[in-house]
UniProtKB/TrEMBL annotation, chain B:
PROSITE patterns: PROKAR_LIPOPROTEIN (PS51257)
Record's bilayer topology term: Lipid-anchor
Transmembrane helix keyword on record: no
Subcellular location as annotated: Membrane
Protein name: Spore germination protein QC
Domain Spore germination protein N-terminal: 18-185
Family stated for the protein in its record: Belongs to the GerABKC lipoprotein family.
Keywords noted in UniProt: Germination, Lipoprotein, Membrane, Palmitate, Signal
Chief place where the protein resides: membrane
GO-annotated cellular components: membrane
GO biological process, one term: spore germination
């Protein structure tokens, strides 16, 4: 009997070799009190919930009549119990938080009992996409929880959740969500194909997927929108777009997407359409302002003094009189200061970060003007430009906007306003060529789609939004029948 | 490879662009031209610069030079200036009395050829030497701003017809229209005033229209949006007509020009007792007659001088298919005019 066990241990050694090196690998043997059957439980202590073993598995296996492996289906009060005879599954199952059960009498069969430890962070408020009005739930790291948040908002059977496992090391679960009766099948196929083609060993966040599956990974523009708001995901699924949920990431990806979507906050849909259109236009103005104002300052002061109004001339000249640097160095100095402040603020804990803001804003700003390193006009311009860049609702796009300023600055220095125009042409060409999941990124501006303008630069009222965006080529382009909606009348008739 | 080439081009070609950093240049904001005393030079020019003090007050700095061309003047001035001289900030060009009699177009032409000079420069003539005008100390915002604003608000609100470099050179090149420029005078070291309008034949000044004629002159050549005129009534009473809006229509048949002037205004001041509707009618009639008489007088005067600031020739050209400018020059001498004016007083103030 003893020899037999040793032999069996030797057989098992092959797959156990690496496991036994780990401290959390546990293999324990027990005897059933009634039948005296010897059985072993193998599990990774760090992945399983010990309470399930203590309360749900062990008492039943020890005290009830337990003879063969098939009995566990009746004895163990756990929903997910599997029996199989394929040793190659052992590693995967153990690593997914299953407890492996072996009986001496049936060495060829293994029972797997689910006992995963679920560490779920409580739901919190969205921090990046905070909105005053509207739901305050944000996604968390657990995929199950996230899917629950979405499914709750779209309780129909047409919402399909397909799951993939990506990453040779991380084995990350990735789910794609779409509406079976709305979403274009081609788009779904493209996403499936791109996810299958992902070759990367460890995918720890959805940001990896953004970079791995985007159409042009050399573009500074993000081509997938990431959001932490379940309501936004539900909204875009109803439009006919596709959502990608990655396990372990509190950001869900949205695709295909367009440039204007990055400048629309989901709060726009909670406000009256006039207000939200106004805010959208302000945001677009802020983007243009943020990219162009410092380069225009450099260009006009270096080349085009004719453009300066005569009343502004004295302000500009007196503020620059004592400054030893040419406009470009002055502007770069301030822009870099602001970037440093932002980077330092982002890296430091919140409370220290606030101090940095004050130190940077007041001390460095005032001091550099007093020291004669920068002019106070430029200080105002750069500060306003930085402020404007923070109005972009999607953080990823905000970073892009801040980066775009620098090529404009350099060309403004080289060629003046002509350089700015040149840079703008390059940017525009790049944007028109850019696609998201094969769909044009600049739509509805280019190619011009007047129908889709209803929810782009401005947002028209919901009554006018009876059709889904046409660039998505949805199976069912009509959201609701306009005629029926009109027929609906108030009660007092 | 292609990208590398583009980057190389960017860096190399940037050397071709002239850099003019705002605080390292001397911006010419005003210029005055006189005839040179030395006979071998043609002009004596005075260039006005602004120097901004740290407390944002402005010091007017003038440099003078002489030469045959405008470029000679700039070269002279550059020799005196501590920073490179650029011309893009030019706002006002003043021509002295002698030079405007002799012809100013080659100078205005050189303004036109300089791409950095805008079209909204005011060209004016002066009673005194232009150098004297430039060397005053007017207002706190600099001489050129002072003169510029003086003319601008008189165009907007008062009796100076619309003018600027663009209009002046258009009038010069147009067949059947002659140039006119506002005329200023330095009355003290810190004051200038508008004293009338200089009328030009081609580019030579031939006549100066005094202030009292300017109202009627503007009715003929431009339209009013905010005019002002006092009407003398019987028994020594006066009525002030304000907020005058005017429009004129000119029709030219073969040898006859009929000019229709439409005036709308508001009576703001009346020295008599009660402003009855008869008085209002009286004001309208008086004003109509006055306008008709004075405008006709002006037109006759222009005819005698052989100039055409109203642009009758140009108007005829637009109305007649076979317009021959040479014929027109003779026709103009015998052209008959009739001026009809229609005044409409819309309001007499809130007291009835």
């Amino acid at each position: 009997m003893k020899n037999k066990r040793i032999k069996e241990d030797v057989e098992h050694k092959e797959w156990e070799k690496s496991f036994i090196k780990s401290k959390d690998f546990k293999k324990i043997f027990y005897y059933n009190q009634k039948t005296n059957v010897r059985f072993g439980l193998t599990f990774m202590a760090t992945l399983i919930d010990e309470n399930i073993i203590q309360d749900g598995i062990l008492p039943n296996l020890l005290e009830d009549e337990f003879r063969e492996i098939e009995d566990i289906k009746q004895l163990v009060p756990v929903a997910d119990v599997q029996i199989c005879d394929d040793p190659s599954l052992i590693e995967q199952k153990l690593m997914n938080g299953y407890v492996m059960l072996t009986i001496e009498t049936e060495l060829k069969h293994f029972g797997f009992i689910a006992a995963q430890k679920e560490i779920v962070r409580g739901l919190s408020q969205p921090e990046v996409e905070f909105s005053v009005i509207g739901p305050k739930e944000a996604f968390v790291e657990s995929m199950g929880q996230n899917l629950n948040l979405i499914r709750k908002r779209l309780p129909v059977k047409e919402l399909i959740i397909e799951e993939f496992t990506l990453g040779s090391l991380s084995k990350t679960s990735v789910a794609i969500l779409y509406m079976e009766n709305i979403t274009n099948e081609d788009n779904v196929d493209t996403v499936r194909q791109r996810l299958k083609n992902v070759k990367f060993d460890a995918i720890t966040d959805s940001s990896y997927i953004v970079q791995l599956i985007s159409d042009n990974s050399n573009s500074p523009f993000p081509q997938l929108l990431d959001t932490e708001r379940p309501d936004r995901v539900a909204g875009i699924l109803a439009e006919g777009k596709i959502a990608i949920v990655v396990d372990g990431s509190p950001h869900v990806l949205i695709t295909p997407t367009t440039l204007v979507e990055f400048f629309s906050s989901f709060e726009d849909y909670f406000l009256n359409w006039i207000l939200s259109s106004f805010f959208r236009l302000i945001r677009l103005f802020a983007v243009a302002f943020s990219i162009l104002i410092t380069p225009i300052y450099v260009a006009t002061l270096s080349y085009h003094y004719e453009l300066i109004p005569k009343d502004l001339m004295s302000t500009l000249i007196t503020s620059r009189r004592e400054i030893p640097l040419p406009p470009i160095l002055e502007a770069l100095f301030l822009e870099l200061t602001i970037e440093l402040l932002r980077e330092a603020g982002a890296r430091l804990p919140t409370k220290v970060g606030q101090t940095i803001g004050i130190v940077g804003g007041i001390v460095i700003g005032t001091a550099s003007v007093e020291a004669g390193l920068t002019s106070n006009v430029l200080l105002i311009i750069v500060a306003l430009a930085a402020l404007a860049s923070f109005t972009t609702p999607v953080y990823r796009m905000g970073n892009t906007i801040r980066l775009l300023r620098f090529p404009f600055l350099f060309l403004a220095e080289l060629w003046g306003l002509l350089g700015i125009v040149f840079c703008f042409c390059v940017l525009l060409t790049h944007l028109t060529r850019l696609t998201s999941l094969g769909r044009p990124f600049l739509e509805p501006l280019y190619p011009p789609r007047v129908v889709d303008m209803k929810d782009a630069l401005i947002r028209l009222p919901f009554e006018a939004q009876s059709k889904r965006p046409i660039f998505l080529r949805t199976k069912n382009p009509i959201r609701f029948s306009k005629k029926k909606a009109k027929k609906k009348k108030d009660i007092d008739e | 490879m292609k990208n590398l080439l583009i980057i190389c081009l960017m860096l190399l070609l940037s050397g071709c662009v002239d850099k003019e950093i705002l605080d390292d240049i001397n911006i010419e904001v005003g210029v005055g031209y006189d005839l040179a005393e030395d006979s071998k030079d043609k002009y004596r020019g005075t260039v006005l610069f602004q120097e901004f003090q740290p407390d944002k007050s402005v010091i007017n700095r003038t440099f003078s030079g002489s030469g045959k061309l405008r470029q000679d003047l700039l070269i002279d001035v550059t020799r005196q200036s501590s920073e490179p001289v650029v011309t893009g900030g030019l706002k006002v060009a003043v021509f002295g009395p002698k030079i405007s009699r002799q012809g100013i177009y080659d100078l205005i032409d050189s303004f036109q050829r300089d791409p950095s000079i805008g079209a909204r420069v005011f060209v004016v003539t002066s009673e005194d030497k232009a150098e004297e005008v430039m060397k005053g100390e007017y207002g706190t915002r600099g001489n050129s701003t002072y003169i510029y604003n003086l003319i601008q608000h008189n165009i907007d609100n008062r009796d100076i017809p619309k003018t600027n470099l663009h209009i002046v050179s258009r009038d010069y090149y147009e067949t059947g229209k002659d140039t006119f420029l506002p005329r200023i005078k330095k009355i003290a070291d810190d004051k200038v005033e508008i004293i009338g309008v200089s009328l030009f034949d081609k580019d030579k000044e031939v006549e100066i229209l005094p202030l009292k004629d300017l109202f009627f002159f503007k009715l003929l050549v431009d339209k009013y949006s905010k005019g002002n005129f006092d009407v003398k009534l019987e028994k020594g009473n006066f009525a002030a007509v304000k907020s005058i809006k005017s429009k004129h229509k000119i029709k030219i048949t073969d040898n006859h020009a009929s000019i229709n002037i439409n005036i709308e205004g508001i009576i703001r001041e009346y020295t008599g007792r009660k402003l009855t509707s008869e008085v209002v009618n009286d004001v309208e009639k008086k004003l109509e007659k006055k306008v008709e008489r004075e405008c006709l007088k002006l037109l006759k005067q222009f005819q005698e001088l052989g100039i055409d600031p109203v642009g009758l020739g140009q108007i005829k050209k637009t109305q007649h298919r076979k317009f021959d400018y040479k014929k027109w020059e003779d026709e103009y001498k015998t052209l008959e005019f009739d001026v009809k004016c229609n005044v409409n007083v819309e309001e007499t103030g809130i007291i009835e």
